[in-house]
Amino acid sequence: MPIQKIKRSYRKTKYILYKETLVDIKEHLWSFVGSFLGIGILAYLQSRTLADSDVLFLIGSFGASSVLIYGVIQSPLSQPRNLVGGHIISAIVGVTIAKLVPDVIWLASALAVSISIILMQITKTLHPPGGATALIAVTGSAHIKALGYWYVISPVLIGVLILLVIALVVNNMTPNRYYPNHKRYRKFRKLIHKNDIAN
Fold first, then answer.
1. Is the dihedral of CA 139, 141, 142, 143 positive or negative?
2. What is the pLDDT of residues 144-192, one digit of tens each?
3. Of 128, 160, 190, 199, whose CB has the highest number of CB atoms within 10 Å?
4. How far is CA 91 from the centre of its chain?
5. For the stretch 86-125, what's the b/e string if a residue is b when 16 or more beta carbons lie within 10 angstroms of its beta carbon?
6. Contacts with 70 (C-beta within 8 Å, 6 or more apart), sequence order
């Protein structure tokens, strides 16, 4: 039974990814607009608050998240719960491991990523870029390490919320795109759409 369930989940994920690579040029445009705005805002915050040498707001995992939340918006891994929860859990794990094992980088790196994966699985917040968020907490610059648990708030939480707000706006600009991919949200959106047509 578990093997059949895994195979079914794999086929479903494969179909979603395949389907979303067949989008028309308009969908590519919306993916571009969303990622441009999301990363652009983070880059602007970076340029206004910190020196160019220490790119704090632009942690690499945000680029990977952008691919998911603007380019593969129907994937279960792209949903808001996964985006926010995956990054926050991974950031907490990364900072904790960096404090517990500060001098053995190979061990700290392996523990941070592995524990993050397990906790994301347990909490149903699996978001692949979260692994990078945990890794950055362990291997990042001295400035990032000096933040300690503030790293969870800024850049991680603030950055993720900025990306999420942009995703919620841009991914719902056309009738063909809707985000998040949740039954209740789709019912709510259909109800709103019917009311607009009636008026």
1. negative
2. 889 999 999 989 999 999 999 999 999 998 877 889 987 777 777 666 6
3. 160
4. 12
5. bbbbbbbbbbbbbeebeeeeeebbebbbebbbebbeeeeb
6. 30, 31, 34, 35, 38, 167, 170, 171
